[in-house]
Amino acid sequence: MLELPKEFIAKYRRLLGKEADDFLASFQMEADNGFHLNPLKDLRQFASLKRQAPIPWNRENGRYGKIFGESVAFLSGVAYSQEPSAQFVARVVDAQPGEKILDLAAAPGGKSTQIAADMNNQGLLIANEISFSRAKILSENIERSGITNCIVTNHRPDELAEHFENYFDKILLDAPCSGEGMFRKDPQAIKYWHSDYSSECANRQKEILKSVLSMLRPNGQLIYSTCTFAPEEDEQIMAWLLDNYSELSLLKIRKKDGIEDGRPQWADGNRELKNTARLWPNKIKGEGHFVARLIKSKGKNQKNKVNQLRSNLSRNDSQNLQNTFKENQFDFPIKQIYRFGDYLYLFPENCPEISGLKVLRLGLQIGRLKNKRFLPTHSLALSSLGNKISQTYDLSDYEFRQFIHGDIITNLKGNFVKGWVLMTKQSNGIGIGRYSDKVIKNFYPKGLRKTIHDQPRS
């Protein structure tokens, strides 16, 4: 039985009145698990996942259930584990191809992967995380999802604000919060809760929002979310924004399937706060969330001064790379390639200048140069651009286990010529191999190799 702090119980009995019993009882129920399917991948051979119960507010791609971390669906980036109510946030963002979007506190990447899929890899997504260790996890999830239009950065909000004044069409702040909506999923989170915790978090959220607003272009949208029920971090933060930033107003959010209005009476009574959305664990099948969508009115002479990135390849490097691409039948645009050491990245169109930024991933890592040879990388295999590799090999179930383990693939089906091979499973890229002497040598990253176990039955 989950033991809630006495002050937590008293607080929500005071706030919720007759609704409190059902709300508090919901914490003794099992956590709801979910995942979302990735439309950037080929989903035709994953009908069993598509048939699982849909999440009402993400009906097209959201499903209830669990994804096994060693399954084809997970390792190919077809599916991403994400708590059901958290999937509502990206639906509110409503990302469109061609937009410039910032996900400010993006790790581990559930919302960023949804946003990039909605953008269909067109436009620019900057996924930022202040913690370097979490930013690395974010970058890995972006890679596995086959995302090509994303820059992963590692900065404080105020540092980013120095680079991107009036720049973004939309900014998502899934704010660091007291995490009350995580109590069922992670009971250890209860240990951090105390009566002043929400007020402490609210002060931190206000400081972050000051930097956020300077990065939002006129007519741009700010989407704010938390996984807490605390009014101090939800309606009261929105009331503070409306009081202190006259250029902001709250947009309505479409609510159905048990999603409710925010509660103005828990802040300053401003009825505009009803435009926010609350997901309660006793009223929906999920852990709970708060979401708000604001728009910044047009201002005068608020143009951004962000320069566009250009390739840093020398003329000699460009010519050598063109020759290498021609030999390997690749046709990547040289003008969009940026070199970090031996690694080559294909950066998004209209990409901003990155000088002064701590960048973990610049669009798509397509390969590396070794002794003047071009070696395609794992990232390329996981993206839709993996089809630029002219040879493919579809792995059997047994060969899939071999390949993920790092073994050479022998007893091949079909005819091949010496060169690179895109290794696939269920029509999706899973890694890179190289055919030579009647075998396919394994280029699956050593840090990702593992023994595949039998999937547990649900």
From TrEMBL:
S-adenosyl-L-methionine binds at A105, A106, A107, P108, G109, G110, K111, E129, D174. One of its GO terms (biological process) is RNA methylation. The active site is at C227 (nucleophile). GO terms for molecular function: RNA binding; RNA methyltransferase activity. Coiled coil: none annotated. The keyword Transcription does not apply. Residues 1-297 form the SAM-dependent MTase RsmB/NOP-type domain. InterPro entries: Methyltr_RsmF_N, MeTrfase_RsmB-F_NOP2_cat, MeTrfase_RsmB-F_NOP2_dom, Nol1_Nop2_Fmu_2, RCMT, RsmB/NOL1/NOP2-like_CS, RsmF_methylt_CI, SAM-dependent_MTases_sf. Keywords: Cytoplasm, Methyltransferase, RNA-binding, S-adenosyl-L-methionine, Transferase. Pfam families: Methyltr_RsmB-F, Methyltr_RsmF_N, Methyltranf_PUA, RsmF_methylt_CI. Belongs to the class I-like SAM-binding methyltransferase superfamily. RsmB/NOP family. This is SAM-dependent MTase RsmB/NOP-type domain-containing protein. The lineage of its organism: Bacteria, Bacillati, Bacillota, Bacilli, Lactobacillales.
